[in-house]
Amino acid sequence: MGITIREISGKKALKKYVQFKIDLYKGNPYAVPPLIFDEVGTLNPEQNPAFEFCESVYYMAYDENNKVVGRIAGIINHRVNEKTGKKCARFGFVDFIDDTKVSEALFEAVEKWAREKGMEEIIGPLGFTDMDPEGMLVEGYDQLGTMVAIYNYPYYVDHVTRLGYEKDNDWVEFKIYVPKEIPQKHQRISDIVQAKYKLKIIKYKSISKIVKDYGHKIFELINQAYANLYGYSELSQKQIDYYVKMYIPMVRLENLSMIVNEQEELIGVGIAIPSMSKALQKANGKLFPFGFFHILKALRGKNDVVDLLLVAVRPDYQNTGANALLFSDLIPIFIKNGYKYAESNPELEENGKVQSQWQYFENIQHKRRRAYKKQL
User: What φ, ψ does residue 344 adopt, rounded to 5°?
Assistant: First the structure.
């Protein structure tokens, strides 16, 4: 089969780029399609503030009948490269049919682009920043995906390893069952930490009020808490503005838990959201005419799964047990709302601080995803 690789740009072409993934996974019961407008916004230099310090290229693969059979993005995050001192490119937003000629042509194109840009290494799948889905699924193909993570067919792994890519880093994911009550040991730790460090949980009933008081501080805290994590790209002020407008209004405020110290400084935050997976499957990439209804129903109606979008604790409080306060606050809310289990979403496999918090709950490590690397 003859394969043609074309570089694409512009909103119209980007819509086709996103649509290919949706079509490739049509009928798959575990894949969660993105919203087309949302992913196009991420890929579009005119919309995504990450392009302050990133550059990208997009390729699509076509067969001899001019049918789309694959896609791949090349990304350079100059801010991360400056931080690490490496000349590293990223590949991401990659999908292809099960044909080695297709995957080989796609990766050859993005590797050539990276070399021409002076890069010496390529890693992925990664996005522009940690706010984008990252990591190729290597375990858990029979588990329902989440809105913030990549789902891919098992054959992807064989294709990338055949092309000389090797493991760089893994993330693990947990299914954490909601208990009937807060575990006694967990509650005891929460009470001790709260008293010892003079911490308290604060809650809000107004989106506009929380945006005004803590909207930007939440993402500034994320920058501090995640600074030393694998591949983390510090969020700029423009990005923070962008994410405050995008994400905070989606949150059910009872599922937002914030810890402040005696000086009223934000030192911890936990954000959960009712699972959007089934709603996004029904939306099939489109917000209108019915996608919005399915999403609103998932957010506001009955839902038995909750996604833990993020947990962040300021570095100087990370070894104090402060995160116990977040779950002492959220667990009764999870019980009240009838959530059966929570999806942890990806956690770095070496991040013992995060994974140790699940020991108090019944849990299963049910997914694993991987970043691959290759010297250019």
Answer: -70, -25
* pLDDT digits 0-9 by tens, 108-130: 999 999 999 999 999 999 999 99
Amino acid at 345: N
Residues 94 and 71: beta-carbon distance below 8 Å: yes
Full 3-state SS string of 103-172: HHHHHHHHHHHHHHCCCCEEEECCCCCCCCCCCEEEECCCCCCCCCCCCCCCHHHHHHHHCCCEEEEEEE
Contact 259, 271 (CB under 8 A): no
**Is 315 in contact with 224 (CB distance < 8 Å)?**
yes
Band of residue 1 on the pLDDT scale cut at 50, 70, 90: low
Q: What is the DSSP letter of 235?
A: P
CA separation, residue 191 to residues 197, 212, 269 (Å): 10, 29, 17
In this prediction the pTM is 0.94
* Tokens coding 239: 């990005």
Contact indicator for 175, 364 with CB cutoff of 8 Å:
yes
